[in-house]
Specification:
98% helix, JAKMIP, 206 residues, Janus kinase and microtubule-interacting protein 3, kinase, microtubule binding, transferase, 2 helices, mainly alpha
Length: 206
């Protein structure tokens, strides 16, 4: 039995060593596999970071393009507005210039007519021309005064209407106040009469 026990002990030790070696081999394999997984994870993180960087750069480029397009569009709109304002001012200037030219032409024509009348030596004709001009000036002045008077009359009518409305409101307020005073007066008279009656009854009782 002792020999058998000594024979089994090396076998058990050998089996334990074999199991230990197998565990070490498995541990090595697991460590190798873990390192491989870490390498894969690191690679995926680098790829992800690279992809995120590319996306950011793409979005930034897109934003830059959009901002540039907006700036160009805004500049074009400003230039269109400036062109429209410039054209409007030019039309206004041309219209004003034509108006001044027309006034000057009329004045020149009037002076030319007057000069021709003087050259012809016809005092009556000169007098007629001057009288006609005076009538025209008087007519223009009358029209201006007429418009001014009409405006003043309109303003006076408006003021009169406001005064009448205010007077009506004051009259209505006075009527309401008078009615309130009459009502209070009647109440006071009734109260005085009541007090008198009570005093008379009290006097008769005493």
């Amino acid at each position: 039995a002792s020999s058998r026990a000594r024979g089994e002990k090396p076998d058990a030790l050998a089996a334990l060593q074999a199991a230990n070696e197998e565990l070490r081999a498995k541990l090595t394999d697991i460590q190798i596999e873990l390192q491989q997984e870490k390498s894969k994870v690191s690679k995926l993180e680098r790829e992800k970071n690279q992809e995120v960087k590319q996306i950011k750069e793409h979005e930034q480029h897109k934003s830059t393009v959009v901002v540039t397009e907006l700036k160009v569009k805004l500049h074009e709109e400003k230039m269109k507005e400036l062109q429209a304002v410039r054209e409007a001012l030019l039309r206004q200037h041309e219209a004003e210039l034509l108006r001044v030219i027309k006034i000057k032409d009329n004045e020149i024509q009037r002076l030319q007519t007057l000069l021709n009348a003087v050259r012809d030596g016809a005092p009556d004709k000169v007098k007629t021309v001057l009288l006609t001009e005076a009538k025209e000036e008087a007519k223009k002045g009358f029209e201006v005064e007429k418009i001014k008077m009409q405006q003043e009359i309109s303003e006076l009518k408006g003021a009169k209407k406001q005064v009448e409305e205010a007077l009506t409101m004051v009259i209505q307020a006075d009527k309401i106040k008078a009615a309130e005073i009459r009502s209070v007066y009647h109440l006071h008279q009734e109260e005085i009469s009541r007090i008198k009656r009570e005093c008379e009854r009290e006097i008769r009782r005493l």
